[in-house]
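Input.
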Amino acid sequence: MIGWILQHPWKLALGGGALAAAAAFVASRFPEYPKLWRIPIVTAVVTLLLVALSLAIETEEERIARIIHDAADAIEGGNYDALASYIHPRKEGLRRIMRYQLRRYRIHSVSVKSNLRVKVERNSRPERAIATFNVVVEGSDPDAMGGTRNVPRYVVLYFEKVGDDWKAVDLQHFEPTASMRTEEYRREHGIPSLE
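Output.
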């Protein structure tokens, strides 16, 4: 419950606001009971406090989502050092692949889509997480003939916690409609699911 509150401040604000408005409507219908006005006032105050708490605290899921967006910015800017800082220190192979990709292609933009989902496995040691999302990368291959292309992909990123930081340990990518496929199709094709 507390996780939901921390991750959904705007839903909380809308729900609490609607509840306070409904309570205010009921209180206005019974002017002979002025103490009824305490209910919408308390509801509004509690909602405001919970929304402020939600905005002030960054959950692990939100940290990982921020890392993904920061890594996308690093890719877009061709900043290998910044990108490498998000990769687990023992994953030299992943670093090599990223370095090669950034040198080979000219990336113009990276757009992480709104279907970004993160699941943290808090009981594992070290803590692990998996993130899934669609991305569209706009870029060109200087060695190939042709102009700029949009490359949409469905990405699965695996993370491990190193100290207080989350680091990428593996990456998979699939055709972009993989996020919309049935569970059976995903199992058959080895596409992880957060369900």
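The beta strands are 106-112, 117-121, 128-140, 149-162, 165-174.
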